[in-house]
Amino acid sequence: MDEISAKVPTPSPRLAGLPGYGRGRAGAAQIFAHRLGSNEAPDAPDRAVRQAVAAAFDGANRYPDLRGETLGAALALRHGLKADQVAVAAGSIVLLDQLMRAYCDGGDEIVTAWRSYEAYPILAGLAGARLVEVPLNSEHCLDAAAMRTAVGSRTRAVLICNPNNPTGTALAPEALDGLLDALPADLLILLDEAYCDFDGSAEAVRAAPARRLARHPNLVILRTFSKAWGLAGLRAGYAMAAPEIIAAIHAVAPPFPLPGVALAAVLAAIELPEAVAARVDRNAAERARLTSGIAALGLPVAQSAANFVWLPVGPRAEALNAHLAGVGIAARCFAREGVRITTGTAADTDAVLDALARFRPND
Questions:
Q1: Distance (Å, rounded) from C-alpha 183 to C-alpha 337?
Q2: How far is Cα 243 from Cα 170, in angstroms, rounded to an integer?
Q3: Is omega for the bond preceding 163 within 30 degrees of 0, making it cis?
Q4: Which domains can be identified in the chain, with CATH numbers?
Q5: What span, in angstroms and rounded, lies between the C-alpha atoms of 78 and 242?
Q6: Could you give phi then psi for residue 115, rounded to 5 degrees?
Q7: Over the range 293-310, which residues count as b (16 or more CB within 10 Å of their CB) and which as e?
Q8: DSSP states of 180-207 as a string?
Q9: pLDDT by residue (tens digit) across 266-315?
Q10: Beta bridge partners of 274
Q11: What is the model's pTM?
């Protein structure tokens, strides 16, 4: 084989320098007693959901809905929207990727608060856009005034994660509405609400999208079934927006966005709101116990509205994460910034607080 034919094709320059997506545990070879690095639900899906998956598997020889229409219609009914205002995909991250590719070109800017979800720089870079990172305020929360100021002539979209990942901090509903009102109407506003079920009443979570979309036709609301709905392993998420924006998502999306078993699981899950309510209540109790316990130990902890807590320990982050891993606790480390710990069971909380009480960063 000559030298020319032996060369491997070079990928797009957009891939150069992109950050990687981290793991919520140290590695596949390490076994953890407490998996608290990926914000998963600590309990298995309800029996009715498992039965729906089993029944759907019997039809695995057939293609599912071309665009997940059955699930989209059910979600539209749940939120008081029209069917053409909902798109589904294998997680809200897929929809966010599709939106950035549909709306952003090289040289465009996307404004977001930072630190936030680590996938954002990757997706923006793949779309050829530049992520403009607006620092969080002293309470580790989105700074609405600074975000408005960061919008410039090249801004194509504004990306809001609320509650924010990894800090768990959230804007109050009226503060979020004020920010949406203040942003230019010609920008695409991406509201990532992966953790919204943990913040506020179930009725408010259900009703808010229709109210906000009626007021802001440039808004896209992204949600997932991976967190409070306990279906992370089935990768299902959805977007709610004006029909024109949903059409743009479909224009860049491949057919069959979700397998039949995932569609069946979600359709069954949305008929069981009491299971979500119970999961949210258990999370609130453990989150409060974990937060107060961390504070009592003298460690910094942000006020979370999600299913995790954020310890902004700065240069001690790696040492803390290694200490937790050493006693069988998987957490998520952000080097020289902090450690995120998922709220799990009562036993998980006990283990974390015991480990933190024995943390000696200078030993």
A1: 29
A2: 28
A3: yes
A4: 13-45+274-357 (3.90.1150.10), 47-269 (3.40.640.10)
A5: 16
A6: -75, 140
A7: bbeeeebebbbbbbbbbb
A8: HHHS-TTSEEEEE-TTGGGSS-HHHHHH
A9: 999 999 999 999 999 999 999 999 999 999 999 999 999 999 999 999 99
A10: none
A11: 0.93
